[in-house]
Specification:
The chain is mostly beta strands. It has one domain: Quinone Oxidoreductase, Chain A, domain 1. Helix content is about 5%, strand content about 40%. The chain has 1 helix and 10 strands; from the N terminus they run βββαβββββββ. The strands form 2 sheets. It has a 7-stranded antiparallel β-sheet, with no helix packed on it. A hairpin with a 2-residue loop joins strand 1 and strand 2. The longest helix has 8 residues. It starts with 8 loop residues before the first strand and ends in a 28-residue tail after the last strand.
Length: about 170
């Protein structure tokens, strides 16, 4: 395993009132120690696209709010396509420092449970996401020369638009 065993941190999330989208709040939470197989990523770049906004207004018809539940009635987390760095890992196949691309909540960090790990991607197999469409549970691991705009100093916001090229990843 990599990362610090038993470490923990404070994280920040943006929550949206599901009945009045203009009403938002910043929520600070304590993220306790990781269990075996889990990772924490630090989300640092994302873009809010129109699809998640459309999904949000669909209410519960497509289970949109179940990707990243808040646990508080009437509140949800808007989702974004973005980039994140693995900052803690208790998963042998996903290392601290790896960069990933995928579907995230508007938050500073996310705890994930990688499964179905392949050289270029993994699926977040946390229980509450298993009944949801798998495309949104899949995360691309960026590799050297695999997706150059995401490497080093070239981490451009432009690369976030690559979601349109990812259906087969």
């Amino acid at each position: 395993m990599t990362g610090k065993q038993g470490s923990s941190m404070d994280i920040t999330e943006i929550w949206v009132n599901r009945h009045n989208y203009r009403d938002t709040k910043r929520v600070r939470k304590f993220l306790g120690p990781l269990s075996d197989g889990e990772i924490v990523v630090s989300i640092d770049k994302y873009c809010l696209m129109s699809n998640p906004v459309d999904y949000a207004v669909s209410d519960d018809r497509i289970d949109y709010w179940n990707y990243f539940p808040t646990g508080e009635e009437g509140w949800g987390k808007l989702t974004v396509w973005g980039m994140a760095d693995v900052v803690e890992s208790q998963c042998d196949d996903v290392k601290v420092g790896q960069r990933i691309y995928g579907f995230f909540p508007m938050a500073s960090h996310l705890r994930m449970t990688p499964g179905k790990i392949k050289p270029r991607n993994f699926t977040d197999v946390v229980d509450h996401r298993s009944p949801l469409p798998p495309f949104y549970n899949k995360y691309m691991l960026t590799l050297v020369n695999f997706f150059p705009p995401m490497q080093g100093n070239r981490r451009s916001v432009d690369s976030l638009g690559k979601v349109n090229e990812t259906p087969g990843f």
